[in-house]
UniProtKB/TrEMBL annotation:
It comes from the Bacteria. InterPro entries: DUF420. The keyword GTP-binding does not apply. The lineage of its organism: Bacteria, Pseudomonadati, Bacteroidota, Cytophagia, Cytophagales. This is DUF420 domain-containing protein. Keywords: Membrane, Transmembrane, Transmembrane helix. The keyword Transmembrane helix applies. PANTHER family: DUF420 DOMAIN-CONTAINING PROTEIN, HYPOTHETICAL MEMBRANE SPANNING PROTEIN. It holds the Pfam family DUF420. The chain crosses the membrane at residues 12-33, 45-68, 80-100, 115-135, 155-174.
Length: 180
């Protein structure tokens, strides 16, 4: 099933394109809300959970790459769907944290400050870009369009891996400045 009906393909593309725009816009709007929602102190632990989610996602991405190199399609599929699920869970947790808590300022000084901001900015920019690639890669894989899937993951995989790993690094760099 290397190609779908044109109407189905158009609907899928429209849905992916809409989500790829809506997700970053929604996150930006939620980050801009000055009045925070009080859901309790438990939300202050979400950055630590997000650090774990990003760490596990990074490991799953590496495992998925290993499995596909070994031609273990089923393990690759399960691993990558788990990474996608964790990425979705991360997004919900990230939004929930920033909806309920002020952003934590980075307190590092000296050479580490520009390193932190370089990693943070590149992480943010590429996390916006990667949404479209990942959604397309997952769609192509699940719809049996393996050639298109392979073409998409040439870009999706390294960007997603970079975003996951830099998410962990940025978290570890700012962790000392969290209140909890």
């Amino acid at each position: 099933m290397e190609s779908l009906q044109p109407v189905q393909e158009q609907k899928a593309n429209r849905f992916i394109n809409t989500l790829s725009i809506a997700i970053p816009v929604a996150v930006a709007v939620l980050l801009g809300i000055r009045q925070k929602v009080d859901l309790g102190d438990w939300t202050s632990y979400l950055p630590h959970i997000n650090g774990i989610i990003n760490s596990v996602t990074s490991i799953l991405l590496l495992a998925g790459f290993y499995f596909i190199r070994q031609k273990n399609i089923e393990a690759h599929k399960r691993t990558m769907l788990a990474a996608f699920t964790l990425g979705s869970l991360f997004l919900v947790s990230y939004v929930l944290y920033h909806l309920t808590n002020e952003s934590t300022p980075f307190g590092g000084e000296g050479w580490v400050r520009p390193v932190y901001y370089f990693l943070l900015i590149s992480h943010i920019v590429l996390s916006i870009v990667v949404v479209w690639f990942v959604l397309r890669a997952v769609y192509f894989a699940l719809s049996g369009q393996i050639l298109k899937h392979k073409q998409t993951v040439k870009y999706a995989y390294p960007i997603w891996l970079y975003v996951s790993i830099t998410g962990v690094i940025v978290y570890l760099m700012i962790k000392p400045y969290y209140l909890h």
